[in-house]
Structures are given as C-alpha cells and as structure tokens.
Design goal:
With 456 residues, this protein is α+β, with helices and mostly antiparallel strands. The chain has twelve helices and ten strands. This is Pullulanase.
Length: 456
C-alpha cells in the first residue's frame, strides 16, 4: 500500500515559501489578514483545508485514500525550509517567544490530525538551515543538527514530548478507517475568528481539540467545559462555560461523564489504596529502621563510651609523655653537663699526661743532669787537684827559675816572665833552652798533650 505526502495540510499550516511555491503565510504564521504577493487572502482556503486535513485528508485533489494510514501529515521536510526558517521567512521581526508559540501550534496541528505524522529531524528544537530551502548539496555546517538548540529550546522540546505521549496513549488520534473518523470526529468551530474546535468521541469518553491561530485571546463558548480534565495545554487556559483561549494556543480536554467520574473515583481509590499500602510499607520500613536505629544508637553509645575512655587514656598518656619529655629535657641538660665534665676531665687527663710526660722528661733530664753534675763535680775536683798541682808546679818552676837565675845571674823579673809565658803557651823549645829539670819538662809536656794532669 502506497503512502502520500499531505501537501494540502502542510500548505494550510505553514503556507508556501522558498523556491518551491507561492510565497504566502499559513495558519501557524497568522494569515487571518495576510495576503500573498498578488493581494489574495488564503485564510478561508487554508481553514477549510486544515479541517479536511485534521479529518484524514480524504478527497484532497480527488484522492480517495484507502485509509488514513496512507496520508503523511507534515509541515516541513528535507527539501524545503525548516519550520523555524518558514516561520522566520514570513515573520522576520518576531521574537524568540513568538517563534516558540507558533512552533507549538504548528506541531500540534500536525501531531493531532488523523494520519501518519512526520517531523523533520530537529524540528522540535527549531532546527535551522539559515534559510536554505534545498540543501542537498550544501556544506555539512548547513545540514548538521545543532544540538545546542535542544537546550536553548527545552520548553518546546518538553511540549513536543507531551504531544508524542498523548498520541501514543490515546487511540482516538490514531483511527484506522475513514468511517470511524466520520462517525466519531465532528468539527464544531471551523476557523471563525481563528478558532478551530473538534469533538472526538470514543466508547466511554468525549474529547475536544481546540486551536486558536489568532494572535489575540478568544472565548470558546460552543461547549461548557466546566469540570473537564485538561489532557494538554500549550498555554495557561481558563476552562469553564466560557473557556479563554490564549493567542496561538492548543487545548486538548476531556469531558468528564458520570462513568468517567466513577472511573476517576475508582482510580483515586486504587491510587489511595496503593498510597495507603505504600504508607504501610514505609511505616514498616521506618519501624525496622527505628529498631535498627535503636541498635545503632546503643552501638554508638558504646563507641562513645569507649572513645571517652580512650580519650581519658590518651590524655593520661599525653601527660606521661609530657612528664617524660620534661624529664628527658632535664636529662638532656644533665647529659650535656656530664659531657662537659667528661670533656674537661679528658682535657685534664690529657694535660696531666702531658705534665707526666714533661716530668718524665725532666726526670730523665734530671738524672742526666745528676750524671753531668757528678761528672762536673769530678771535673771540678780534678780541676781543683790540677789547680793545686799547677800551683805546686808553678811553685816548683819558680824555684827552678830562682835557681836558674842564681846560676845565670840574669835579671829575675825578665827571666821569670819569659818562663811563665813559655809555660802558658806550652812552648817546649823555649822551656828547653831554659834548662829546667827533667821532671818539670815531662809534666809540662804531658799537660800540653792532655794525657795527664800536672802532678809535680
């Protein structure tokens, strides 16, 4: 079975723009008073096309579809402007908030229509190709999806997710035959002052899908919606006998029947039952936790007691350490003093040893000196003996001289001086000439040679 793109619904929602059609706005761009370049208004045409498209597009361009599943509902695709670019093409001065409102409106008109919805990748986050309406040969910077726009337009993305969830959970938006559509969907407002309203019935409920494509708020009084349940709202909507529809808004609401009320009550009771059971479970858990907590508290108290005991012991240990530290400091001082005394004692011992060495040296020297003194005394004694011998010799010599003078008759003074001088210089030749006795001459000769002291 073939599928067909629903261009009529697309044109009704976002008009025609770019190089593929007549440059004109659609319902989502606010074309109630707009005209195309030829001065023609397309609002009534687009209003009728949207109603037919919402009902499954049967009969467009003489098409007789077998079922709504053959129709692809879309606003933008790969070969034309993106939704954001199409909106901007006709609303160049709109601000970001207005673009979001109109994108919500366009996405809702496509998603809630009968048929197969198609959304261009990134459309839910206002994807842009910077106005390029045929980007098959454009650079990747044009065709890539800018994921930052998802964060920048997270409100629109969140609303789109709600749209998807509503369509998935509500079969009334996915009817499989046109007979079913004709039987259960009734247009009750078809574009008057920008308002479109559809009544959708199912076996056990009635829903209303309402769009306001007008930029201004509108009143909806065709149905008293007092007590109804809002399934989806793109804006803050006041529901009642007179429902206030904000400008550029979508409302999906469910009429509450007696059966729905009973079902809601049952659902609330079930929910309360579940909540009650959850509460019981939580209480049981809390009791278990409480018991466990009590055990933990006891354990904690034991640990606190042990910790306090350990702290007391620790303080005692700290005090003991402080005392030991004080003792250690005092001991350190005593050790320093002891070391100082030891150093002094060692210095004294070294000095004593040095003195002992000096004494030993002096003692050795003294012993040697004693020997020398003894030798000196011996020499002195010998010298005294020699002196006496010399005096005796001198006396004998003088006697010899006197005798000699008597014999020679020479002057006494001159000869004695000559003889004494010869003796002083040990001049043997001169003494020989004086004819001294042999004993005297022998004593002089030995004295001169040092072999013997004078003994005569």
């Amino acid at each position: 079975m073939s599928a067909f793109f629903g261009d009529n619904l697309r044109n009704a929602v976002i008009g025609e723009s770019g190089s593929f059609g007549n440059a004109r706005s659609g319902l989502a761009q606010g074309n109630l008073t707009d005209k195309d370049k030829n001065g023609v208004s397309h609002y009534q045409e687009d209003a009728a096309a949207f109603v037919k498209g919402f009902m499954g597009s049967q009969g467009f361009n003489k098409h007789n579809y077998l079922n709504p599943g053959q129709v692809i509902n879309y606003s933008t695709c790969h070969d034309n402007l993106t939704l954001y670019d199409a909106l901007k093409a006709h609303l160049p001065n709109a601000n970001a908030a207005e673009f979001v409102k109109r994108a919500k409106l366009a996405d809702s008109m496509i998603m809630l229509s009968q048929g197969v919805p198609l959304f261009h990748s990134g459309q839910e986050a206002l994807r842009t190709k910077n106005g390029n309406d045929n980007s098959y040969n454009a650079d990747i910077t044009v065709n890539e999806i800018d994921w930052k726009r998802v964060e920048q337009n997270k409100d629109l993305v969140s609303y789109f997710q709600k749209l998807v969830q509503l369509r998935k959970t509500c079969p009334a938006f996915r009817m499989s035959t046109y007979d079913e559509i004709k039987k259960n969907i009734t247009p009750i407002v078809q574009g008057e002052n920008g308002v479109f309203a559809f009544e959708i019935k199912s076996a056990d409920s009635t829903m209303y899908v309402i769009f306001n494509v007008n930029e201004k708020a509108n009143q909806f009084t065709s149905v008293d919606l007092t007590g109804s349940k809002i399934l989806l709202s793109s804006d803050d909507t006041t529901v009642g006998a007179k429902t206030i529809l904000p400008g550029l808004s979508t409302l999906v609401i469910k009429k509450i029947s007696d059966k729905d009320k009973i079902n809601d009550l049952i659902a609330h009771l079930e929910a309360d039952k579940i909540e009650f059971q959850q509460l019981k479970d939580e209480i049981a858990k809390e009791e278990a936790k409480s018991q466990k907590l009590s055990v933990l508290v006891d354990q904690l108290n034991d640990k606190i007691a042990k910790m306090e005991s350990a702290q007391t012991a620790l303080q005692q240990l700290k005090d003991e350490i402080a005392n030991e530290k004080a003792k250690s400091q005092k001991l350190s001082i005593l050790v320093d003093q002891l070391n100082e005394k030891i150093a002094k004692m060692e210095a004294a011992q070294a000095s004593l040893q040095q003195l002992k060495d000096e004494i030993a040296n002096e003692k050795a020297k003294s012993q040697k000196l004693s020997v020398l003194v003894d030798q000196l005394n011996d020499k002195i004694a010998k010298t005294e003996a020699d002196k006496i011998a010399f005096q005796q010799l001198k006396k004998d010599i003088m006697t010899e001289i006197e005798n000699y003078i008597k014999d020679k008759k020479e002057p006494e003074i001159d000869l004695s001086k000559k003889v004494l001088d010869a003796i002083a210089h040990a001049d043997i030749e001169k003494l020989t000439s004086y004819k001294l006795s042999d004993d005297v001459m022998k004593a002089v000769v030995e004295f001169k040679q040092g072999n013997k002291k004078l003994t005569c």
